[in-house]
Amino acid sequence: MDEVEETPLVTPRKPSIPINPGLRGYLLRYKRERQLPVTYDRLRDFQEVIPLVDRDGKPTLWDTVIYRSDEMGDLYEGLKRIYALLKVDGDYSIVQHLYVDRVDYCSFGNSTPFRVRVVNAYNDNQDYFYVKRADASRVYGLELEHLLSPNRLNYLTSGNTLIEEHIAGIPGDIFIDRWLQYPELRPVRVAKELVKFNERCFVRLLGDMRSYNFVFVITPDFEAAQVRIRAMDFDQQSYNSRKNFYLPQFFKENAPLVAYCNKHLHPQTALQYQREEQTLMVQRAELARVRLGALLEEMCVDPIAPIEKVHALRTALAEHFHRDDYLRCESMGALVQQNLTSLRDVVAQINQR
To answer: What is the residue extent of each domain of the chain?
Structure first.
């Protein structure tokens, strides 16, 4: 992998982009848009906040919010129904033994989300989901992740409200500090997944994948452990004008991972893993051809980024891929579409050899 370059420590706050009628129609068609009993704006009407600390007593970026006593019962029942919609398509009968333990609020970042903790009364098992402002960029990011990555995602929209399931895993920054030298992990498997994750982000133009915006999922196997990296923040989908913003390897927060990858992977092996992921992405795109085509059709006409950003990025991508076809793109959706076309051509050329 290439050396890390300097990137801005603070990403300028991206404006929230409303969901247009075309994208709303897509969400309705694929049962993402639902009527919800609780909205983001309703959750904003809290009365008190209590700082939330971690297991070691250190402050976090979250506050636990308290609602009026006459509002809390109905509000929490509505949140349970949302959880039932998210997990079992609205079958409330099988989640009656669950209860909402608390609601947390984070004022950091673009989405200023609420995090709802749901607990099983029989065994104290905990799960979470998030309530955020609906944003077109984030929705495109979630849907592209669902269609083009090895991961499936559950999320719902309702007007200006977005519901996301919790993505379990070890946050990348914590993985770097505590797990990178873990003896049960084979270095080559970690490095392989870094190459694949880097390629997935670049092709579908998911930006700002610093170490705290993705997680490591570790699965025990009969020979050491398997590793997968999953994005968990989709706010910077197809908005920035810089090509390297869509390549996780270039963020200095990820420098230890890049050094780790360079240490344990031969360049030819890294190329092999890159080609593997490219082939898999082409196969996923073909399997979801109708649905992906409908999504990209809407994305191509949706102004989710200023035109000057589109033009700057298309020039960089045209130089990177040596394809003038990029210079005809007038939207971020068209650039993602062209990336997939370039990918198909690369895979086809390899298969003809």
So the answer is: 21-165, 170-352
